[in-house]
ABC-2 type transport system ATP-binding protein
Amino acid sequence: MSHDHDPAAGEQREVPMPTTDPILISDLTLGYGTHTVLDGLSLAVPAGSITALLGGNGAGKSTTLSALLGFARARTGTITVCGIDPAADPDEARRLIAYLPENVALYDHLSAFENADYLLALSGERPKRGTIEDALSAAGLQDRAWHRRLGGFSKGMRQKVAIAVALLRQVPVLLLDEPTSGLDPRATADFNALLAEVRARGTAVLMVTHDLLSAADIADRIAFLEAGRVEHEVAASGEERFDVRKLHARFQLGAGRLAA
Ligand SMILES: Nc1ncnc2c1ncn2[C@@H]1O[C@H](COP(=O)(O)OP(=O)(O)OP(=O)(O)O)[C@@H](O)[C@H]1O
């Protein structure tokens, strides 16, 4: 499955430097049939920052990611990924996005290395010799696991392979759907440390999550999605992190409002 690694041909693409916020959603309304899911949603994620998108079940968090990927079409409002409208040009928008769904689709019969190599080839990437190993290592996967089939991997190990692929793609936007669900606290901390590195590269990260602790630990901004829009947004200031108990209370308030 591995392709020929010609170092000369394997130059990594430059990460496009956005002139506007890489993720920009303005007054977005979207739904399925007669059911309106997003109703005036506005959200901006600047380069080099992490926004956690919180909200009750069915609030429209995954739908927001679908719209950024060009799978769900806006009725009104605008949505851009580095200035590209994903509905008008989904291929170009997806070229700029690394997306980690909740259940990452990897191939059990391939090794970690082969999975990364194959998935990158599907994205049209030809990584330089040694860069896959570097990325697997940076993602925290021990070298003895690099050439083992994924069949026996834990969820945390799979997540590391997936994030290694995302790291290798060097794209300006990373979308994560509940990335820490099912991870133990140690694996979650490792994952957050990795996200901090992705942020330091200038990537705009939007993370849908129910994990308040993880969001409080890593996010720069936390947006609460309620009644189809961002009703409340809080930002961490400097070294001061979020208070998880306050976030929990805020979340309960929103969930109560949704149920009312
Ligand atoms: N393809 C679809 N067709 C019709 N309705 C859909 C579709 N996808 C999602 N919905 C509906 O849109 C609403 C929002 O779903 P979405 O998956 O975006 O919520 P969510 O906030 O991600 O929820 P959860 O936290 O449970 O994952 C729900 O009522 C859901 O049933």
Notes: The chain has two domains: 23-96+172-259, 105-170. The longest strand covers residues 35-45. The domain at 23-96+172-259 is CATH 3.40.50.300 (Rossmann fold).
